[in-house]
């Protein structure tokens, strides 16, 4: 691979007709393969009450992935902080860092990553459903890692001194501005909010203040990517993710459908429009097509790093997409100066 950093975001998708254990084993195999291919990071996302996503417990899954790999950085993309007490997150990720130094990232988000009923079940209090306290909760979390006070009544063990790479994640100006003000690296969710990418990155860079973490802003853009031998094959492979997302938005979440089921689905005109909008901003096609699309994205955003997420039904096709990108796309990627 080229020196331009590419990383992976995985949701441990549960394919129709398979079990959660198979999904998690597939994610493990993918992490091992992309490590061999030279990808920089492998992150897993926190989602709840979704039958098609098995990555509901990032810290637990990351412990397994860290024991199954040796060099690739591993992290959360992200932990949804309003769902958790900051002390618990600090202890979990402090433990990961203590076991695997210099390999763990902690990406933090402020959305629930689920519906409100499930968020209530996670937090056990209606009062905790608001994200307005996010900056204070984030500051408390960081303090558990970095404080050296001898008078602290609560100390995270492991945690204090076992600091992961801390990132802010977002799909809006709010997290972009906060990341800039705190001098943290920022990852933008272009893969599901492509319309706001340019504005959020501009806010991040304009509000950036040098910190103990960074001297200059560092922006990563997460993008959906499906690469296959031909454009037609990539189109075929991408169908299940579109149908799964449509069903999620309709309140009917389920396991990842097969390409055949997705191709046969009778989209209404409104659903077809939704599917077309869902494709905006994706990198989808042959290596030549994906090369053009990712270079266009880099030209627009001047991203310092790209994080690719590939939701397809078959694990072999998922792995093959990352292989094609590493072998044929990555060497051509250039970041504008």
TrEMBL record:
<dbReference type="InterPro" id="IPR036661">
    <property type="entry name" value="Luciferase-like_sf"/>
</dbReference>
<feature type="domain" description="Luciferase-like">
    <location>
        <begin position="9"/>
        <end position="303"/>
    </location>
</feature>
<dbReference type="GO" id="GO:0005829">
    <property type="term" value="C:cytosol"/>
</dbReference>
<dbReference type="InterPro" id="IPR011251">
    <property type="entry name" value="Luciferase-like_dom"/>
</dbReference>
<dbReference type="InterPro" id="IPR019949">
    <property type="entry name" value="CmoO-like"/>
</dbReference>
<dbReference type="GO" id="GO:0016705">
    <property type="term" value="F:oxidoreductase activity, acting on paired donors, with incorporation or reduction of molecular oxygen"/>
</dbReference>
<dbReference type="InterPro" id="IPR050766">
    <property type="entry name" value="Bact_Lucif_Oxidored"/>
</dbReference>
<comment type="similarity">
    <text>To bacterial alkanal monooxygenase alpha and beta chains.</text>
</comment>
<dbReference type="Pfam" id="PF00296">
    <property type="entry name" value="Bac_luciferase"/>
</dbReference>
<protein>
    <submittedName>
        <fullName>Luciferase family oxidoreductase group 1</fullName>
    </submittedName>
</protein>
